[in-house]
Automatic annotation (TrEMBL):
A GO CC annotation given for this chain: cytoplasm
Domain (Nudix hydrolase): residue spans on this chain: 92-248
Name this polypeptide is given: Nudix hydrolase 15, mitochondrial-like isoform X2
Source species: Durio zibethinus (Durian)
CDD domains membership: NUDIX_CoAse_Nudt7
Cofactor: Mn(2+); Mg(2+)
GO biological process, one term: coenzyme A catabolic process
Domain of life: Eukaryota
GO MF, one annotated term: coenzyme A diphosphatase activity
Keyword Phosphoprotein attached: no
Pfam family of the protein (one): NUDIX
Location of the region described as Disordered in the Swiss-Prot/TrEMBL record: 122-151
Gene this chain is encoded by: LOC111274995
Length: 286
């Protein structure tokens, strides 16, 4: 299982400029949006700068000595989690997930989620964001996230305008997961076709729920003397109930914080780990 940390934001930052007068340029291309809200959001997010990963000398030494260890079964933002950086000792695998946002019928901002296939060997039946590991032909994290989303749920990459990439999150086995925020301008053009080998269901949820203290539960856990909180969000849509937690919840808390420009209405309490010199069973997070 996996988990992370975060902050909040209002969906738009008034006042609006004449955003519909002309398309904006993103990633070197000209993109048009059907909604003032979506265009304003795209303009806001393209200026987002992830926080740096700042470590003191002692932490860097601890990190070097911890090469090869399994970080955890719960993911954390790399900016607050020391992780092996020495490429000669550890080469973390790279992955990307797509936070695909669109306007709902009620005008709210929603995100596309999946329920993983019950036949999968890992994290079966859990809620996740579409995405996966980077492949050799991928140009960047946006390419990885949209390619995987196409493979998993039939989301045509041409329908998604990638606007920014958040700071990476760390999962077990030192997998670096890059959350890619993309905007789906025409929701009706997307006809979900889940790959049955990977996905049991495709649904959407309001992004703002991940910074509200509603339908949320929490568990306090401890690892290597550091206490931290794991957040669980209960969500129901179409008479179906879903539990969103772990890495997915953590990434969505962060994404909602960035989009709505305000912190969550609850304590996140993520630890600043001090890695041991030797990796053994005691260093695996419960």
């Amino acid at each position: 299982m996996i988990f992370s940390i975060l902050k909040r934001l209002p969906f738009f930052s008034p006042p609006f400029v004449n955003v519909m007068a002309s398309p904006i340029s993103l990633n070197g291309g000209s993109l048009s949006f059907s909604s003032q809200r979506l265009l304003a959001l795209a303009q806001q997010l393209r200026h987002y700068k992830p926080p740096p990963c700042s470590l003191d000398d002692n932490e860097e030494q601890i990190i070097e000595e911890a090469a090869g260890k399994v970080v955890s079964q719960v993911g954390f933002q790399e900016s607050v989690t020391p992780v092996v950086q020495n490429p000669e000792k550890c080469r973390p695998k790279r992955a990307a997930v797509l936070i695909c946002l669109f306007e709902g019928d009620a005008g709210d901002l929603r995100v596309i989620l999946t329920k993983r296939s019950s036949r999968l060997s890992t994290h079966s039946g859990e809620v996740s964001l579409p995405g996966g590991k980077a492949e050799e032909g991928d140009k960047d994290d946006g390419d990885t996230a949209t390619r995987e989303s196409n493979e998993e749920i039939g989301l045509d990459p041409s329908l998604v305008n990638v606007v920014t990439v958040l700071e990476p999150f760390l999962s077990k086995h030192l997998l670096r997961v890059f959350p890619v925020i993309g905007i789906l301008n025409d929701r009706k053009a997307f006809k979900p076709t889940p790959n049955p080998a990977e996905v049991d269901a495709v649904f959407d949820a309001p992004l703002e729920m991940f910074i509200k203290d509603e339908n949320r539960s929490v568990e306090e856990r401890e690892w290597m003397g550091e206490k931290y909180l794991v957040h669980f969000f209960d969500y129901e849509i179409g008479n179906k109930k879903y539990l969103i937690w772990g890495l997915t919840a953590g990434i969505l808390i962060r994404a909602a914080s960035v989009v709505y420009q305000r912190p969550p209405a609850f304590l996140e309490q993520s630890p600043k780990f001090k890695f041991p010199g030797v990796a053994d069973k005691s260093t695996v997070m419960p």
